[in-house]
Amino acid sequence: MISLRDITEADAGLLYMWKDDAIYKEMASHPEYINTVEKQQEDIECAITDPDQDYKLILLDNEPIGYIRVGWYDYGDVGRVGWISYALGTHRGCGHCRKALNIYFDQITTPVQINATVYTINLASQQLLEGLGFKRIHTYMKITGAHTYSLSLPR
Ligand SMILES: CC(C)(COP(=O)(O)OP(=O)(O)OC[C@H]1O[C@@H](n2cnc3c(N)ncnc32)[C@H](O)[C@@H]1OP(=O)(O)O)[C@@H](O)C(=O)NCCC(=O)NCCS
């Protein structure tokens, strides 16, 4: 069963390991991103103390398998916008992330927009977002290229 829990500082090693993975680096990471356990620890401390950030671990039968992170911003007329990122460690290809995102989205009861930026080569993530009802709103063609997707919640 998939569930979510808040991240803790003790999860820094897991985050490091997942972000050190070759598929993660190719599909989801900026080439200049420096991944260390200390960096993950700092990120987690920052997220825990920031009311405008959600950082959740995805659990499969209570064991951590990935994460969802959302940074929330107020965009004037558009309203509250959350920029989301997510990844699984090794448990890919079974639809776990879709279930986890649905759990997260179902907890949102006030009108918001969720945005995600996805590299053009990341077909699994694009398919995942489109399956959840996200629409592609923008395409960047710098270097690797990336699409921005958007979803209005609650659905
Ligand atoms: C993106 C990610 C979280 C998806 O994990 P997942 O829940 O296991 O998703 P799945 O592998 O089940 O794939 C999701 C959908 O994409 C499809 N898909 C997977 N690989 C694909 C490919 N190479 N081409 C086209 N579609 C693909 C699946 O068939 C599935 O489609 P469905 O929802 O219609 O059944 C996972 O691949 C991951 O962690 N990737 C590395 C990190 C990452 O890319 N994060 C996102 C940054 S934007």
Attribute tags:
7 strands, alpha+beta, 5 helices, single chain, Aminopeptidase, 31% helix, binds coenzyme A, 155 residues
Descriptive report:
- This protein is of the alpha+beta class and 155 residues long.
- It has one domain: Aminopeptidase, CATH 3.40.630.
- Helix content is 31%, strand content 36%.
- It has a 7-stranded mixed β-sheet, sandwiched between helices.
- The longest helix has 13 residues, at 37-49.
- The chain is globular, with a radius of gyration of 15 Å.
- It starts with a strand and ends with a strand.
- The model has no long low-confidence stretch (mean pLDDT 96).
- Coenzyme A (COA) is lined by residues 23-24, 27-28, 85-88, 92-98, 116, 118, 122-125, 127-128, 131.
Using the alpha-carbon principal axes, give the shape.
globular
Number of strands: 7
Mean pLDDT: 96
Count, helices = 5
Low-confidence stretches: none
Layout of helices and strands:
Elements: E1 2-6, H1 12-19, H2 22-28, H3 37-49, E2 53-60, E3 63-74, E4 80-88, H4 96-106, E5 112-119, H5 123-131, E6 135-140, E7 146-153
Parallel strand pairs: 4-5
Antiparallel strand pairs: 1-2, 2-3, 3-4, 5-7, 6-7
Helix pairs in contact: 1-3
Bound molecules: coenzyme A.
Residues 23-24, 27-28, 85-88, 92-98, 116, 118, 122-125, 127-128, 131 line the site of coenzyme A.
